[in-house]
Amino acid sequence: MKSSALFAAFALALTTSTSAQTQDSEPQTIPFEGGNFTVVENAEGEKVVAYEGKEIARNYVAFHDRTVEVAGTKVAIFAVGDGGNACSPEVVLAWKTEAGIQSTVVGDGECDIPSAAATAYNIFFVPYPLPGQTLPVRTWHPDYGLTMHGNLAYTPQPGTDWSDLDVKQFEDGIVAAFKNEVVYKAAQQLLGDGMSEFSTSLLVSGGTESLPSGAFYASGCVPHACSISDGFMAIDAKAKKLYFAQQTDKSEPKTWPALAGWPAEMKNAMTKALAPQQ
pTM for this one? Predict the structure, then answer.
């Protein structure tokens, strides 16, 4: 199964891809403000980030992302994490003052830490909200540290309607259909506060398929947790209706609307998509 286009953008916004970084046991040296950072693997397999012998951070994945200048202060940005795909790495910022090297960790054990976006005066950590989500935007300044800047809410494209929907738009993942305003509003009515949780179940998608009626559908799963709470979404643009289903710990999936009101072709498609995983 392939990641949907939305999930690809989501993942890109959250973190610099660790797959693009060479993680080997060779020591790394990064010149910085009259000294050097080093990234060295220890006997336990951890990468230790240090500045002139002073440890800054350590974990199984650690690499220098880049060095930027913020408000006249040079800042080295490192990605440090457990490795694997479960969570994006934390962001470690390091800078030098008269008192010596300083550092701070953005993440503190959280998952899905946005990567750093630097401007001349601040470093922003901008999340990528899923449908139904509102997430905090934080900013860092060398004088004020990490502070809240505001909130970012997922918003569909204004003015988009059922007539704008085309199965070809969602070949890489039907979750992108939430960007259509009428789909988003119809999904809100059906899913309520559970929309963000449900949309997560579509992030890893096998593609979108058409039905004889012209409706189309796709199934997917939660990243790194397939076959647990997989989701199904179908769109009937002609009838202006949506159909959702998600695996539960019961024999039958949860559906919106109730399964008794589903057309036969929709019900069959959902059963084939989710039944093999139950």
Answer: 0.76
Specify the long-range contacts of residues 240-243, CB closer than 8 Å, at least 24 apart. 240/162, 240/182, 240/186, 241/186, 242/183, 242/186, 242/187, 242/190, 243/217, 243/270
∠ Cα 180 181 182 (to 5°): 100
3-state secondary structure of 7: helix
- Could you report how far apart the first and last alpha carbons of the chain are, in Å? 17
What DSSP element (H or E) covers 246? strand 241-246
- The mean pLDDT values, 10 residues at a time, for the chain of 278 residues are 41 40 69 96 94 95 95 96 74 96 84 85 93 94 95 96 91 90 97 94 86 93 83 95 92 92 94 73
Report the C-alpha gap between 1 and 159 in whole angstroms.
32
Q: Which two tokens stand for residue 224?
A: 């790194």
* Separation of alpha carbons 117 and 68, rounded Å: 10
Where do the domains of the chain lie, and which CATH numbers do they carry?
2-153 (no CATH), 162-277 (3.40.1420.10)
